[in-house]
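As practice, study what follows.
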Amino acid sequence: MNDLRYALRQLARSPGLTVIAVLTLALGIGTATAIFSVVYGVMLRPLPFREPERLVSIWLQRKLARNYPAAADALELRQLRGVFEDVALFEDVNLNLVGDGEPQRLQGASVSPNLFSVLGVAAALGRTFAQDEDQPGRERIVLLSDALWRGRFGADRAVVGRRIRLNGSLYTIVGIMPPDFQYPSGAHQAWVPLVLNPGELTRQVTENYRVVARLAPGTTLQQARREAGALAKRLASTYGGNAGMTVDSMLEDAVREVRPTLTLLLGAVLFLLLIACVNLSSLFGARAAARSGEFGVRLALGASRKRLITQAIAEATPVLLLGGALGVVAAEWAVRVFVAAAPAGLPRVESIALSAPVVAFSLTLLALAGCAASIAPAVQAWGSDVTTITKEGGRSSTSGRRRSAARRVGVAAQIAFALPLLVGATLLLQSAINVMRMDLGFRPERVATLSFEVSRSRHPSDQKVADYYARLVEAVRAVPGVANASLVNRIPLVGGQTNPVHFDNATGTTDELTNVDTRTVTPGYFTTLGIRLVTGRGFTEHDDTNAPEVAVVDERVARMIWPGETAVGKRFRAPAWRGGRWVNVIGVVAHVRTVDPLTHVYWGSGLQVYWSYRQWTQDRMVLAVRSETESGPLIASVIKAIRSVDAEQSVYDLRTLTEIVDRSQAQLRLTTLLMVGFSGLALLLAAVGIYGVVTYGVTQSLREFGIRVALGASRREVTRLVVWQGTSMAIAGSVVGLMFAIAAAGVMSHLVYGVAPTDVASIFAATALLLLVAALASYFPARRATQVDPMVALRYE
């Protein structure tokens, strides 16, 4: 306690240093803890299922993308008894709930009954599905999420056994899932049994499903991959095709797309923490050097070196405790802000919290910072010599020069850690600018969108569905203030639907493109979204099942398949599951951005084909409405028009196209903002470090500068000498920092757009900024050096 009381008195004597040390520590601990909370919650925290390490996701692997397997593939996988304990499959569905209030669209999943046993979860109320409840003709049943049960049904326990109307049919509620069950995502509200078409089991009909499995006890992921790959080869030789199979852990599959971003942010905050630790060490080291005379006196009076080291650690303890506490409080606040501002699509947001492993990580960081704060005073005390340390405070001793060299190395290290952050921030900033400037291929202003799914119980045939769509669009176009309205199955920048297409090229053969983005649209769609018609025509109501099958392609298809030719009049084969018929090209439109530019490879090739809604009918559609003016919300009137056509039609995802564009860029903007913030903090800490070291050096050499001026040196020369001392440390650190930045190029390659991860201009700009800050941080101490009175220096000598 005496040591702590003495330490507090010592810290109170230099409040400036104490405040800077506490803030530096809080900054480093807080940012690192906050980002690790995100990384742990998203990437590392085990899934909330039984033995989650045994859960895997299975995909078909083709050249350009991964695809969902067919139901028959899942049944083949079930035969690998020694590899998989069980295999389940599911797909997302929309469920239109009517009765007891307004029609409500539910995000649902159609699942094989064994999904819940594969995951190892049970219903909180009631039961899950029995194995035979996926057979045709069985009673329709449904499981509800806890949120839907509480929100729509008032947490009434008697709801189990009650019948509700979904998509025009009666379903019996058999159970309520636990509050923490959020699979496939937190947005899912209901689950129904997956009833397979008999043709799917014989591969006469192909539908694709997400497939998950539980590994058999003792089976490794590598073994499962080998067996699944061998099965894919056998299936390809039997049924044709060239798709392989890939098996990933369910956790890895869930976080694959965000892993590069989170890895980058974690690396950035660790660099920032290292800068803070070096800065902390420099601060306490400078303080120890200033007290070298005191150490000499205490040694002369009989104090042991061990006693001096204990005192040094005691003096660092209050700073560590206060800085660490402030850092954890700041991290808790930052995590809350991050969760609230998290971009749409970030998986496992509900798992992000300041959990026990995160606190343990924070304590580890605090211990590291404690070592950094204590090591310099401890070394100073251990190497103390009574004779040399008491002579002029050790100012001219060899140990003083060693300490000065150590501080210069520390500054160079801070620069080395700061430069990769600056380079990363510069690259991301350039990427964000490129994304904002890119041509989307459509005009998002004044376009509102909403989604819906048609009820097949009320519109059983494709013809009736198409007629319903035509009436709906006509009703919406009649709303005052609506300039145009159209339907599309997938709005740009919100996923995609890919299909294999065989294009008829000039040589008489066909070019197969396996991942062409296909869209079903109504007449006027290109006008509604402002997509430029390059040549030919768009669709009309006459492009129906009684007319030849037609399509519109984008510019990329036209240039790739028919370079130098007119695409209009050319043809291609539709996917085999659509009969493989020849389709005539009637028009070419501008290329449209269909997904986030940083993840477009995952979805497909970027080539686009549009179909007439009467020739390829889809159940899920998006209504796009372009208004005549910016003012006046039309959504309420549009929904009223929809309900005039079908009073039970539910709608969802009401948003503007501008909001969709912003949402597609949200992850890049957030990552850029964080990296710019981290790099700014790193730059500030590095500048403080340079300023402190140069100031200390100037203080130690004031008489030298006075003598230089007395002997004829100009004040400009003295300024240049001091500034060079700081800049030279920055140059040395920049050399190492450039190596770090180049080594991080592999991570950055997945996150940048329109700029190379080793872009010379960006690296040069970041380095130049860092050197400029170093020069400015050295300039102010240099001014003090030029103000030394030469007569005072000569009189001292």
Remarks:
- DSSP finds 26 helices and 22 strands in the chain.
- The chain has four domains: 1-48+270-393, 63-242, 397-437+666-797, 456-647.
- The first helix runs from residue 2 to 13.
- The radius of gyration is 34 Å.
